[in-house]
Amino acid sequence: MEGKMFIFTAPSGAGKTTVVKHLLEKYDALDFSISATTRQKRDYEIDGKDYYFISVESFKSKIDQDQFIEWEEVYHDQYYGTLRSEVERIWALGKHIVFDIDVKGAKNIKSIYGDKCMSVFVRPPSIDILVERLTNRNTETEESLAKRIQKVKREMAEENSFDIVLVNDVLDITLLEADHIVETFLYGTNHL
Ligand code: 5GP
Fold this sequence. Notes:
Blueprint: E1 5-9, H1 16-26, E2 30-32, E3 35-37, E4 51-53, H2 56-64, E5 68-75, E6 78-83, H3 84-92, E7 96-100, H4 103-113, E8 117-123, H5 127-137, H6 142-155, E9 164-167, H7 171-187
Parallel strand pairs: 1-7, 1-8, 2-7, 3-4, 8-9
Antiparallel strand pairs: 3-6, 5-6
Bound molecules: guanosine-5'-monophosphate.
């Protein structure tokens, strides 16, 4: 079966991962597209669950073998990509796919899959709030934080490229809205 797809994209720190985790816990019909990446694993992450953590060499050889639907060097020497095998794996389970990817990758996937795919741009209420969240997260060095903030500013200008903009101000409300998006796209109605 070819299922449907949800792409959640956002400037770094907008809260999209929280939204995605909530949806995956709530809906059995959804499964997460595990990207491959060459960036360092964070302590709380699990290889094969959050990402497939691979070397730059292995990533480049997968590019040569055309194993990616889309890939990107998001930061210097930090590659991220969606493997064709992920889409096949999830559809073979009879499930719908959830992507958590950056703005450029999201636009690529949307352009490939069109109407099968609902693209959602998660936006913080303001850039200032986002910079504050990103800084408080404490997962970055000063240099990588500065790079992320620059990228955030570029990405905030892109929200009109997506099907829906989900403003993440009060989290509980954001999650209800995310439920509504999923149920409407999958079942044509909101079961709440
Ligand atoms: P992080 O390092 O914070 O996990 O992710 C950095 C950025 O890369 C985030 O915006 C994340 O959504 C994005 N990303 C994760 N996986 C992929 C992917 O497969 N392709 C693309 N284009 N971006 C990805």
